[in-house]
Design a protein that fits this description.
By secondary structure, this protein is mainly beta. It contains no helices and 6 strands. The chain has a 4-stranded antiparallel beta sheet, with no helix packed on it. A two-stranded antiparallel ribbon has the order 1-4.
Length: about 90
Amino acid sequence: MIGESGVLVLDGLGIVPAGRSYQAWVVDPGKLPLQHESAAVFTGVETIVPLAQPVPRGWVLGVTVEREGGVSAPTRQFRIGVQRPL
């Protein structure tokens, strides 16, 4: 994270199947029910994906495969996920 901006750096994720998009989500794991904020929609050819949402300390950044163009809430489990250290 640089200031309030964040990026997702990828290596080896692969290109998403036709008709699908990867979507990055920011989640506060300490708040139930979980609320997912869309942070980016991308194809997998990118190495660096700018995030539209900050990732506060302790929160999780996860990536799902969704229909092309993205969705308002995740429909699948995270393919990858990481929690930002406190």
